[in-house]
Amino acid sequence: MNGALPEDFAATARDYVAKLQAEPAKIASRKASQNALNAYGPHLPNYWAVLRILRRVT
Predict the structure, then answer these.
(1) What's the Cα-to-Cα distance from 28 to each of 4, 25, 32, 52, rounded to whole Å?
(2) Contact between residue 50 and residue 6 where contact means Cβ atoms under 8 Å apart
(3) What does the alpha-carbon distance between residue 21 and residue 30 come to, in Å, rounded to a whole number?
(4) Cα–Cα distance between 28 and 11 in angstroms, integer?
(5) Where are the domains of the chain?
(6) What is the pLDDT of residue 58?
(7) Are 15 and 43 in contact (CB under 8 A)?
(8) Deepest in the core among 10, 16, 17, 30, taking most CB within 10 A?
(9) Which distant-in-sequence residues (6+ apart) come within 8 Å of 13 by Cβ?
(10) Is 52 a residue whose pLDDT tops 60?
(11) Is the pLDDT of residue 54 over 80?
């Protein structure tokens, strides 16, 4: 847990942004935020642990 992103994260982010630009969706900002979490989250270290903590706090 050194705070570093996985080596493939830049490519993952680029691919996700390219997909959004190619297929724009007219959705609420909260849905867009959820989509971003679903796209990026599984590629981030400790994502599920942080998500559990946030759910307890909010």
Answers:
(1) 31, 9, 6, 24
(2) no
(3) 18
(4) 26
(5) 9-57
(6) 55
(7) no
(8) 16
(9) 40
(10) yes
(11) no
Which DSSP string do the residues of 27-40 spell out, in sequence order?
--HHHHHHHHHHHH
Residue showing tokens 């959820």: 34
Distance CA 15, CA 43 (A): 13
Q: Residues 16-32: pLDDT tens digits?
A: 999 999 999 999 999 99
Residue 51's H or E segment, with its range, is helix 47-57
CA distance 58 to 55: 5
In terms of average pLDDT, the best of 7-11, 12-16, 34-38 is 12-16
Q: Higher-confidence residue: 27 or 8?
A: 27
